[in-house]
Write the structure tokens for this entry.
Amino acid sequence: PMGTFAYTTLEVEDADILNVTADGQLEALQLGSTDVTVHIPALDKHMTVTVTVVDELDGIELAAEKSTLELHETTVITCTLLPENAIGTGLVTMASQDDDIAYYDNEAGELVGLSYGTATIHAESGDTNVTAEISVNVLGGKRRLFVANYFANPKEWGYLPFSNNNANGIATVFGAAEVEGQHYQVTGPLTNVQRDSMLAQMDACFADATDDDISVIYICAHGAADTATGRYMFGVNENTGVNSAEIASHVRKIKGKIVFIMDSCSSGKLIDDLGGLIEEEGDRIAFLAAAHWDTSGCYWVGSDEQSSVDFFTHALLYGLGFNECRGFGGNPRGWLTSDEPADKNGDGLVTVAETFAYAQPQTVAFIQSARSSKQFRGNPAQVPQSAISAEMADLVLFARD
């Protein structure tokens, strides 16, 4: 068809695809492409363009390069118009509906993970009001566990029959945990490892930790106040140990939040010694200790290592849903069939405060129930100690599907 107007004439090559209306508009009739020529007779000029008729936009499809992000990791969200040959009448814009979890940077065209959770990304195309959404998960900080235990050889001085059982139980329980989408990366148990090697491996375990991460340290050993310095010290053998000042120097290096669990006699002295560190950095470091500074720990001597246990770690693990002592209390060794007893509010998440709030009285209860037995060892006055700030109290330590 051809339309003639004041100064121009429009000519469409394929009238089945386009029509020229009375007021000079091009009307789409069916899908396809055709040439349209504009003539200007007065100037003896003309120009030809190809016009393509496509489907009207009726959908947007979003795809994330990565559907799960680490904290501060980025991903690209791609947008596909539907049908494939459709076009929108305006620019497709995207935005996060959960900016506190993930932020969409329109200039960079990237989504950035900011905190644990699920973010919904919303896309909209111009004035067609066609929209789409996609969800992206953001993980919490990475989690690491370091486990060391000593005096685990029955042929050597100071044998602790529960040492291996404790360390293996801790590694098993935390190794099975999943918190904010992250599993603990477990180093150990390191058993009877020499002092310098143990400290070097502790440093290496947490070398890559960031301010977002959570680190747990568990050590089971003999402990006492060092007669030379008056400081707390846990032993690595009969003659060598690591004192509280050395512990502090290595703990300070670790970025992020830290939970230090010390299972030994007199381990509350560690908390007393590190009062300055706790005052300065208590918002990111918590300490759990098996006993008061002047009290030895209590334990149960079974027929073998898996039926031997010290009551503090036993109570701690029991609160997380795991019975490490075969036969004690008439229970088999392994996971409980009930939920974690320490999960006081029943939300499926066990915090640092909940862990200790269960472990402290349960340690005492275990001791009192066993103290008259010939298999009982230790001071029945044992009461676990802790230094847990308000900032660390609600840190989730354990969860399991």
